[in-house]
Amino acid sequence: MIKLQIVGNLGKDCIVKEVNGKTVINFSVVHSERYKDIQGNQKERAIWVECAYWTEKTGIAPYLTKGKMIYAEGSPEADAYMNKDNQPAATLRMRVQTVQLLGGGSGAAEGQGANANTSSQYSGNSAAQSAPGNYAASQPTVAADDLPF
Question: What is the phi/psi pair of residue 116, to 5°?
Answer without folding.
Answer: -65, -35
